[in-house]
Specification:
There is one protein chain. The protein is built from 5 helices and 8 strands. It has about 210 residues and is α/β, with parallel strands linked by helices. Helix 1 packs parallel to helix 5 and helix 2 packs across helix 3.
Length: about 210
């Protein structure tokens, strides 16, 4: 899939991203993908981000991946998590303004730190109709509040992930107000090295069961 380099503003900072859209005469669904923790080398070039994109492209999504503030060519410095929520919101609004997109919902996806940002940001965005959270770090960070969650949520993790332990993720899954999907990938840890294809397949399957296919 060909991607073009784009920039957009968040809190007055210029953030860099890559936008891709398949050739289509019909309006497309869109998706924003958020990368893992900036302080641990996370960026939009991460292997898991790429695996998420491969699944979305296979389903005909237009996509935007981007670097949070302070990463790559994005301006600013790491904001401790709160500022990155604003970055995700800005990314969704930028994507929603692109021509050729369907107006009935954007998918907000993220991996690890990016998954947590996505789950927290989504309730503030009318444009977001579903969330994908890969390796949501529920075992090492306080889980987001989902007591009044009202959007479809896809949870994917490896069953050997020490940052997202299966029992912790299952407990989090049971708290979600709206029905959601949980998929576990046997043998994969938090980083999915060697399991990228399995991750893409699990996400494709989960999204194919929704109206976003």
């Amino acid at each position: 899939m060909n991607e073009q380099t784009v920039t957009f503003k968040s809190d007055g900072l210029t953030l860099e991203g890559r936008l891709a859209a398949p050739e289509s005469d019909a309006p497309m669904h869109g998706a924003v993908v958020c990368h893992p923790h900036p302080l641990y080398g996370g960026s939009m070039d991460n292997n898991v981000v790429r695996a998420i994109l491969e699944s979305l492209w296979a389903l005909g999504f237009a996509t935007l991946r981007f670097n949070f503030r302070g990463v790559g060519r994005s301006e600013g410095k790491h904001g401790g998590g709160g500022a990155e929520i604003e970055d995700a919101i800005a990314a969704v609004r930028f994507l929603s303004e692109q021509p050729g997109l369907r107006k009935d919902g954007i998918v907000l996806a993220g991996y690890s730190f990016g998954a947590r940002v996505s789950v927290i940001a989504a309730p503030r965005l009318a444009e977001v109709a579903a969330v994908v959270a890969v390796a949501l770090p529920v075992s090492v960070m306080e889980p987001p509040d989902v007591a009044e969650w009202d959007k479809p949520l896809v949870l994917i993790a490896g069953d050997r992930d020490s940052f997202c332990k299966t029992n912790d993720l299952e407990a989090f899954h049971r708290k979600i107000a709206r029905p959601s999907t949980l998929k576990l990938i046997a043998g994969a840890d938090h980083f999915f090295a060697g399991f990228e294809a399995e991750l893409s397949g699990a996400l494709t399957s989960a999204l194919s069961d929704t109206r976003f296919a």
